Structure formats: structure tokens, C-alpha cells
Amino acid sequence: MKCERNVLWLIVVLAGLAACSTTLTSVDKDGGNVYALPPTVVDQMLKDAMSTEISTGTLRRGSTPYPSYLGEVTWGSLDKDTITASARPAKGRKLDGTIIDGYVFEVSRKGTAPATGEPTVKRIFAKLQNDAELTGAGVAFVEFTD
User: Fold this and answer.
1) Domain ranges of the chain
2) HEC letters along 32-45
3) Which helix (H) or strand (E) holds 2?
4) Total H helices, total E strands in the chain
5) What crossing angle do the helices spanning 114-135 and 39-51 adopt, rounded to 10°?
6) What's the predicted TM-score (pTM) here?
7) For residues 27 and 33, what is the distance between their CA atoms, to the nearest angstrom?
8) Cα separations in angstroms, 65 against 90, 100, 146
9) What tens-digit pLDDT sequence spans the chain (146 residues)?
């Protein structure tokens, strides 16, 4: 009976770890920025931010209809997180009220290696935010268009 309880406890813990995830985004319920940049620039920004943290052997394009990249980070020999950086299409409003098309950056992780994945997501997101702010192309978020 005690062995069965321990096995059940282990299954619950492993299932909980497998469901660990985090998402950072340049918008939230209080607003945020849409970056009015060409798709080629956005794609290069995503690739650059990811390649600073993710091994080129695991870095690949995402399967979303908008620019995205994903790759893996590991902790130990068993734990792995999949990191995804993407740019979701969105509408933004310039100061003069003009509505423009742009992108919102998102970086997420999912897997069983939060000790490695969490800080990696934060660094990738910080790089994307910094690079996006340097362009001066940020406008107020209105809505997602995907």
C-alpha cells in the first residue's frame, strides 16, 4: 500500500512538472506596445535574440503563421524546456490616432526544466524588448489581428 502511494505521488509530481510553462509578452491587461516594423526585421530580431541563448543545433523556425523561432534548453540529462519566441500581428495606435499594423513580442517556455528555462526566457525577452525600443517604432496596443 505504501509503495502504491509513493508511485502515485511520483506520478502527480512528474505530471505537474511536465505542465510547467511561462509566457512573457510586450502587452498585458493594462496595454503595452506594438512595434511597427517590417516582417523581415522582426524575423531577424527573433532569430538574433534566440541565437544568443539557444544552441544553433536546436534552433528552428516555428510553425505559426507569423514569425517565430523555437529551441530547447536542458537541465541535467532528463529535464528539457522548449523556448518559443514569436511576434504576433497586432494593431497599434500612433499619438495622432492613426491605426497601424505591427507586432507584439512574446517569449514562452514549456517543459520540465524551469531552473534553466525561466532565466533563459527572461533574457531573450529582455533582448527583444531592448532591441524593439531602440527602433523607436513602438505605438500603443489596440488589438491582436491573428
Assistant:
1) 21-144
2) EEEECCCHHHHHHH
3) helix 2-18
4) 3, 8
5) 140
6) 0.82
7) 6
8) 13, 19, 9
9) 565 665 555 554 544 444 588 898 989 888 899 999 999 999 999 999 999 999 888 899 998 899 999 999 888 888 888 999 999 999 999 999 999 999 999 999 998 877 788 889 999 999 999 999 999 889 999 999 98
